[in-house]
Amino acid sequence: MTGATGFVGAEVLEQALGEGLRVNALTRRAQPPRAKLKWVPGSLEDAAALDTLVRDADAVVHIAGVVNAPDREGFEAGNARGTVAVIDAMRRRGIKRLVHVSSLAAREPQLSHYGWSKELAERHVKASGLDWTIVRPPAIYGPGDREMLELFRMAKRGIMMLPPGGRLSVIHVGDLARLLLALAQEKEYSLTRTFEVDDGTPDGWDHKDFGAAIGQAVGRTVKTVATPEWLLSLAARTDRLVRGRKAKLTPDRVDYFCHPDWVVTQRRQPPRRLWMPQMPTEEGLKATAEAYREKGWL
To answer: How far is CA 168 from CA 82, 256, 257, 265, in A?
Structure first.
């Protein structure tokens, strides 16, 4: 497993260990030991570490990637070349089963360097000759997530700046983790398939409705403001000047934030006999807000 120390990966790891599975997990930093877990020091650039990681594996779940980089090269290195490195390690060891976590952004690669790099990684997976399944999550939320944290903070202040009109799909991290583990342990319904997954809300969420749902989760009535693209671009440049590489709103994100349709495609959803979402989004948002408060983030 790659990406085990990140937001999604940590949840997958917890669920896997909870099911009694043995896991090899890649890590850049020393981690505390746990039963049935082998931490493998290294990174996606370390061929020897990847060789150790996949050795004797029944399946590889590739979650690691970058969501923020200074330029196109940074996205390609973290998402596309990193995926090639995992594929090469699997081929050397004769490991066939790969569950690859992509992004709904890969559906519109022309909008951002991020989406382009995720779509390129998908092409590498499809050409790999492995027994692959690709999962394209939409916006992922849940305890521990810092990407949506700013939306909760705005909601607490009673006003939320959102992209112009459009709709989006979302998914709770726990539901996504359940799917990834289910896919790692079976191939019958998923071999050479690309799935788009969400919370089960028909036609996704209107931006304003989703903003109001976050407001309800933090206990505030929220005024939502549809922010024009030019103003988001200005805010992105300002955020980069103030926070540098730690900026959350980047110029690369503005174009795909402003795209009007980030709703999953019905025909690409997993078969219901394999997986269904279990977390109602209103309940999940409330639990996320409570977790933020406990951590002192909100």
So the answer is: 28, 11, 10, 11
3 state DSSP class of 168:
strand
- For residue 175, what are the contacts with CB-CB under 8 A and spacing of at least 6? 197, 199, 277, 278, 279
| 167 burial type by CB count under 10 A (0-12 exposed, 13-18 middle, 19+ buried) | middle
For the stretch 74-108, pLDDT in tens is: 999 999 999 999 999 999 999 999 999 999 999 99
Q: Which CATH number fits domain 7-295: 3.40.50.720, 1.20.120.550, 3.40.47.10, 3.90.1150.10?
A: 3.40.50.720
- Regions of the chain short of the pLDDT cut 70: 230, 232-233, 235-251
DSSP-derived letter for residue 46 is -
Are 21 and 72 a contacting pair, CB within 8 Å?
Answer: no
